[in-house]
Design a protein that fits this description.
The chain is an alpha+beta fold and 470 residues long. The protein has a single domain, classed as Orthogonal Bundle (Transferase(Phosphotransferase), domain 1). It has a 6-stranded antiparallel beta sheet. The longest helix has 20 residues. This is cyclin-dependent kinase. Keywords: ATP-binding, Kinase, Nucleotide-binding, Serine/threonine-protein kinase, Transferase.
Length: 470
């Protein structure tokens, strides 16, 4: 442990950084990165220095943030990267997050007002729309990764798991990245954003007054994504990027955990060698369990932007109720909770779902009377329930896009969204401990993995396991 501790503080010995920044304190630490609060010496601006210990995570975050130009995405000022050193990203500093907004409201026994809810939601939608119009899938959306400024400006953060699904003629290869001793975002040798879907500066100033824009249609997106997958571009998706301490993937298990896991051969584990099959596949082992789409839980490596939309629906539901909608204790329990609400996953509700890698590996008892989303959203209006239903549904193709939701009548009806200046912003991050990076790199806890033997009965079959819930 001593060498790791020394490494986490190596940022203090890097002359090119301390010449420009006064490092004040470490504000978070985790397996893949350490984050420091610092002051830029040239103008006294407070920034966050994120030292990333994983090459692939650093590349993904830098590439995504240099492509994106949105008021609702965290700003990357510059980065430092030498071949023999960890990457250090200089990000804007935001001291709280949406999870704290939710937790403080819950602690005080009050709901979040509708007008405030709409403003929070619009900001999330604007940030996500910027990502998706550039074909960037975040893959780890959750309240702790939605940072909030003192004046109520919400920004998507922690792009260490992000992937660019489609670019003109190629998919980003991590072999293309050359470490630089120092890079400012606007320098000539910085990454050049591909001209995919240009950002419009006024897109989200008043999102409920958005005019039609020249953006990719859902049908065109699916067509292009299918073409991309058909190319079988040699691309890796290493598991070293997984930040979520709650994921049940092999990359975060101990040796004993792995040996005892009866799903070792059926789930899409990719830790050995840390790579996929080299055929352009993504990994299913991403995100935080409570916000993970069903296709990921069933091992899909053939997904798209829609996994973010499921996560968005879970976030909206939590904003309405101040409680997570699917707080699973393990992946099997997560599926069980989803089934209890939406019913069993079948070909009738999602044509083609039987082709998911683990669909036939696990069998669930039929849920005779699913409670429905209405039961999970007490005291919500029909419009609010409808908004969540457009996102929390099995068929990815049926989920509403961020742009579609920005046009939803919910946001144009009274009460109108409050100005950002009227949003209530907590003074600090609630419940943050010194070992949690939260929005800076997603190490916060969402329940821990537990042996599913404690709450299910399972039997081995020729093709996998049969699961029976008490």
């Amino acid at each position: 442990m001593e060498p790791e501790a020394a490494k986490s503080w190596s940022i203090h010995s890097r002359g090119e950084i301390i010449a420009k920044y006064e490092i004040q304190e470490r504000v978070g630490s985790g397996a893949y990165s350490d984050v420091y609060k610092a002051r830029r010496l040239s103008d006294n601006v407070v920034v966050a220095l994120k030292e990333v210990h994983d090459y692939q995570s650093a590349f993904r975050e830098i590439e995504a943030l240099q492509i994106l130009n949105s008021p609702n995405v965290v700003v990357l000022h510059e980065f430092f990267w030498r071949e023999d050193e960890d990457a250090v990203l200089v990000l804007e500093y935001l001291r709280t997050d949406l999870a704290s907004v939710i937790n403080e409201a819950k602690k005080e026994g009050r709901s979040i007002g509708v007008a405030q809810l709409k403003r929070w939601m619009l900001q999330i939608l604007c940030g996500l729309d910027a990502c998706h119009r550039n074909m960037i899938v975040h893959r780890d959306l959750k309240p702790t990764n939605l940072l909030v400024s003192d004046d109520g400006l919400l920004k998507l953060a922690d792009f260490g798991q992000a992937r660019i699904l489609l670019e003109p003629g190629y998919v980003a290869s991590y072999n293309n990245l050359q470490p630089y001793e120092q890079n400012a975002v606007n320098q000539e040798n910085a990454f050049q954003p591909p001209e995919v879907f240009p950002e419009t500066d006024n897109l989200c100033q008043e999102a409920y007054e958005i005019q039609d824009q020249d953006t990719i249609s859902k049908e065109e997106y699916f067509r292009q994504l299918d073409e991309f997958k058909a190319k079988n571009i040699d691309e890796t998706d290493e598991e070293t990027n997984v930040h979520d301490g709650d994921t049940s993937c092999l990359a975060t298990c101990t040796t004993s955990d792995i040996e005892d896991d009866p799903f070792k051969n059926s789930y899409s584990y990719e830790a050995e060698g840390g790579r996929d099959d080299g055929q352009g596949c993504l990994t299913s082992c991403v995100g935080t369990r409570w916000f993970r789409a069903p296709e990921l839980l069933f091992g899909s490596t053939d997904y798209g932007l829609e996994i973010d939309l499921w996560s968005l629906g879970c976030i909206f539901a939590e904003l309405f109720t101040l409680e997570p909608i699917f707080p699973g204790t393990a992946d099997i329990d997560q599926l069980s909770r989803i089934f209890s609400v939406l019913g069993n996953l079948t070909e009738e509700v999602w044509p083609g779902c039987s082709k998911l890698p683990d669909y036939r590996t696990i069998s669930f008892n039929k849920v005779e009377n699913p409670i429905g989303l209405e039961a999970c959203l007490p005291n919500c209006t029909p419009d609010e329930i409808s908004l969540v239903k457009k996102l929390v549904c099995y068929d990815p193709a049926s989920r509403a896009t961020a742009m579609e939701l920005l046009h939803d009548k919910y946001f144009s009806e009274e009460p109108s969204p409050v100005p950002m200046s009227e949003l209530w912003v907590p003074l600090t991050r609630s419940g943050q401990d010194e070992n949690s990076l939260r929005g800076w790199s997603g190490h916060d806890g969402m329940g821990s993995d537990s042996d599913f033997e404690d709450f299910v009965n399972y039997t081995r079959t020729d093709t996998g396991f049969s699961i029976r819930f008490p």
